């Protein structure tokens, strides 16, 4: 059970954030946010003390919720980045205590999702499959990884409570693939220095666009901040800038389609009788050895072969042969989400296809809305607001951006997959774990496997590269059995990626 013992407020500088940007500079010795305003110190924190039971073990910990500045090249603050830092308080030697640095994606969303859904000491109130329930709020997370590692959750600029210090600050220095990586690497270095964690084994974990972020950060931290990591965890990864255009990209969707159709019992009985993980290798084999070669022939694929391929796609996807032929064997995601359960009057979710939605019309080429995302906002938003104010004692009228304005976003020169490969090559102690949900249609599991295969063309790093699949969607941890399995696998990954004392890092 969580207990707040003391609250300590700290103000380390006087820059204040107002609304989306910084307000007037005001002196605040106690660090409190002025009541009834939207002002927020860009360098302040609230510290509280708690306890949680994890795997039957009593864990006391300190939670620090606050902001820390982003500095420009002239040493001036340009933004305040909000973070929540959980530190086990009965550990005497932090030099061997792992530190996990956690990001979510968007790119305009804060770290709320994994903080109160996955690895943090408190978890939002949802049912065992991840659906909203009332009353809203949080409870103990007996599966938190705080027993084995300290964790900091970081909200990039314009997400959560993070903001630029002024409307005059060009946001182009934050909003782009490489810009995002650069300033966050500097921020991480500041955080690690202030918290005296340079000696600790360090891990990055990112979800969705957060996987793009942490893949790039792995190399940026090494090359620009001289900070070497022990592990990178990619939860529901993006394509990581690894090219898959054309027939390959078209074909890689099918195993996800098959998993979703299997879940909704839209397949032939002989396939439905198989367990999911026994069924999918058959679809993956067809995808690699038959579908990609067929799609590579384009309009010159002969009619007999075209119909044969369409029939197999139909068998594995639950869609009609006519619909597949009408799309020239190339089924768009949107159409699949609309078509699979169209006859039953439902759409299926994009980020988690277990979820169903109801559109205004059955007709159309795609769903009216993302059924899973609105469900998640339903449960996560009030839970985080309640948690911040009532348990962490962080009180401000500033809006907590579940989705902040970060557009336009410069996505040019996205080579983070290659950046991650280079980081792995440079650092013999660095390990990679990928976790995917079979029902995720935004960052699907087979594309994640493909990225893993392409990450290291030499094949000489593959003993440090690992992939895991779960029977959930994008937020694979929302389903209780997957939360239990995934957090246990994180514990194993952290333990196996942390070298023994005195063990050299070398080839």
From TrEMBL:
Pfam families: Peptidase_S10
Listed GO MF terms: serine-type carboxypeptidase activity
Record's keyword annotation contains Signal: yes
Organism domain of life: Bacteria
Signal sequence extent: 1-27
GO annotation, biological process: proteolysis
Record InterPro entries: AB_hydrolase_fold, Peptidase_S10
Keywords: Carboxypeptidase, Hydrolase, Protease, Signal
Coiled coil: none
Protein name in the entry: Carboxypeptidase C (Cathepsin A)
